[in-house]
């Protein structure tokens, strides 16, 4: 079933809270390779991937779509983290690298429920000099994300923006609020489903923890999707009677993602007084 059967296929709408960070300069790709958890060196120009920035202990500070427009131009579409704070944190690691890092106030992020005009899969349409389009389609239906100049921004629509976030969660893309930043490893967030991190690319913050967990097979928790029959707070404990199953890490509309144990079959659960019904994660958002 499509993620948004009521949205007009050609209707673009603003995605509030999503920001664009640009890394530009001779060492942009090299800096991104050294800092972020996916393999930027192996990513071709004009392609994008899921990625993120981790603490030294391997916990996700921010998750984002990383666009390699060229070796000297890397863009990050950041949906949840404080972009200005992320920029300042990244700048502390520039040292002698020839790269400028900044949040682009002249560009905005918008979405559309419908197939891209030219982008497909991991292939980007646009080089950053005008609008840029990427394909966020999955098994739940076609979606397009566009980066456009501020003066050309689409109008806000709270209902469509919430449906967009719901689609992210249903495909296993965690939309982590600030309270959940720095708490979870890529494996606990099941980011292998999105091909969102690398265990072979070499050093980056948190790489040792990520690689050790991978190669020793010690991932005991991962994402579970639930449909909520009432209000649920992020950070609430996921319970089955007196047993704690996990914790709610993301919520949008009537959908929630929890980090829960991988050693049991999904069962109905509760978060506070609200009943949650387990649902299968949709595929197709990996890049």
UniProtKB/TrEMBL annotation:
UniProt key word rRNA processing: no
Gene3D superfamilies from the UniProt entry: 2.40.30.160, Aminomethyltransferase beta-barrel domains
UniProt keyword terms in alphabetical order: Methyltransferase, Transferase
Top-level lineage group: Bacteria
GO MF terms held by the record: methyltransferase activity
GO BP annotations, alphabetical order: iron-sulfur cluster assembly; methylation
Keyword Transferase appears in the UniProt entry: yes
InterPro entries in UniProt: YgfZ/GCV_T_CS (IPR017703), YgfZ/GcvT (IPR045179)
SUPFAM superfamilies for this protein: Folate-binding domain
Signal peptide residues on this chain, from the entry's feature table: none
UniProt cross-references to NCBIfam families, sorted A to Z: ygfZ_signature
Name of protein: Aminomethyltransferase
The organism of origin for this protein: Lysobacter enzymogenes
